[in-house]
Structures are given as C-alpha cells and as structure tokens.
Amino acid sequence: MPELPEVQTIVNDLITSGLVGRRIIKAEVQWPRTIATSSVHRFCRLMRARRIERIERRGKYILMSLDDQQTLGVHLRMTGRFQWGALGESLDKHVHVALSIDDGRVLCFHDTRKFGRFYLVKEPLALLGNLGPEPLSPAFTVAVFKYRLAGRQRQIKPLLLDQTFLAGLGNIYVDEALWAARIHPMRASDSLNADEIEALYESIRRVLRQGIRHAGTTLGSGSNNFYSLGRARGGNASHLKVFRRTGAPCPRCRQQIRRIVVAQRSSHVCEHCQRQG
C-alpha cells in the first residue's frame, strides 16, 4: 500500500502536471464500488463542470478541493494509481474512474485489486477526523510524540501503523524508522525511555523525508507496485536499510537481517542492533 511519501509524490506530480485550476468536463465510473459516498449517478452529476482549486495530502488520502466547497478524497489502498489518458481513448479494464479534463486529458484511476475508494464530501472532517497528527507537520514536535505515547501499552510497530495514532506510516517506513532508532518492533511502547523516544521521532521524520526526496519506494517491476503519475517509478528502494533485505548484512553491524512477523505484519529487523530487552 502506498504510504505517506508515495501519496505525497502523487500529489506533487498532479500539481506539477497543471491539474490545479482545470475544470472536470465529466466523470465516468466503470467499477461502482470505487465510489464510497454516493451513487455513481450522483457522483458523476456532482463532478461535472467542477473546477479543481487545490490538491493536498492528509495521511494516505489525496484531497482535491473543488469550487463548490466539496472535497474529493481518494484512498489508493493496495494498488490504486493515477495515469493520464486522452479524450476518445478506450479505457483499460483496470481503470475504474476517469475524469475528463477541459484541456483534453483524462485523469484515470487504475486499480487492479479494486480496493481504492473515492469519497465526495462537504466536510472533510467526516472523512479525516479520526486520523492522528501529520508526522512531518511543524506542530508534531517530540513533546507531542511523548505525550501521545504516554500511557500506551502496545507493541511499538502496530502502534505506529495505527492511523489514529500517527497518520501516513506503513510497513516500509516503520521498519526503516525502528531500525534507524535501534528499537525492536516488538518492544512495548511504554518501555521506551526519553532518549529512545526522541531517536524514534527523528528517525520517523528522516525516513519519510528521504522517501519524498526520492519520489517514493517502488519494489520490483510488477504491475501492483507503486507508480506515480505517468508510471514513474520511485527511487527510494536503493536507500532502504532493512525492509525486504532478509538475509542481507545490516548496514550498521553486518549481522544478518531477519524477517519476523509482528501483529500479523511482515517485519524486517536486525536483532543485534534492535534488542528486544
């Protein structure tokens, strides 16, 4: 599933492509379940002639603010991605929503697994209200992180994956941040001392910024991997330290990286650098 850096990369690419300020001529839906908040007919009617005022990200959601005070929220889930088409072209069978733009382009939502969702809402809080803070926001300080950890008694990895605790993190960047902070993913959150909390805070922000800087993480060449607009590959895979490097030497101590399961999630760890005790 695309995580914060991948979603931010797509937002950046949509903005760079000149989509902001363009008007939607029509919407076409080929897989009705993609539309989560209304009937397909109502969605297509409400999207017609709408001007895109702003595109931004919140957690793992892409948010397009429209000129009628509505917001189109898109969650990519496992395999959702955007690609450009042209007016009059036939749509690929995996394109479930197509937005025809007034400059002759068609913004296509491609999703082989069909888990991605579109939400057309008047009040974004109805969609985003349960999300935790943004880890790269200036308002998210180490003091805020310590406060949110206080009294929690969960394994640290599933806690960091919980979108109500912190928005935007997923398997890749949690594994990378925990390795960078030398914290085992099975450690209890209330066992972290002040120095470890500060190290984890800095590591989270550092690995996310690195992911954005390298336009996200694309692993392998399969169609289900992350691709940004125009099928652009992310370049962050070569900068990963532990994620999907099972059996490789740890870049820090040269011990073997192991794959373990934490709360039913595949996890990658150097158990020499990241002690459980």
Please characterize this protein's 3D structure.
The protein is of the alpha+beta class and 277 residues long. The chain has two domains: 4-126, MutM-like, N-terminal (N-terminal domain of MutM-like DNA repair proteins, Alpha-Beta Barrel), CATH 3.20.190; 142-269, Orthogonal Bundle (Helicase, Ruva Protein, domain 3). It is built from seven helices and twelve strands. The protein has helices at residues 4-16, 40-47, 125-128, 142-149, 156-161, 171-180, 194-213, and strands spanning 24-29, 52-58, 61-66, 71-75, 81-86, 95-101, 105-110, 117-121, 227-228, 232-233, 258-262, 265-269. It has a four-stranded antiparallel sheet. It has a four-stranded antiparallel sheet with strand order 2-3-4-8. α1 packs parallel to α7 (194-213) and α6 packs across α7. The chain starts with a helix and ends in an 8-residue tail after the last strand.
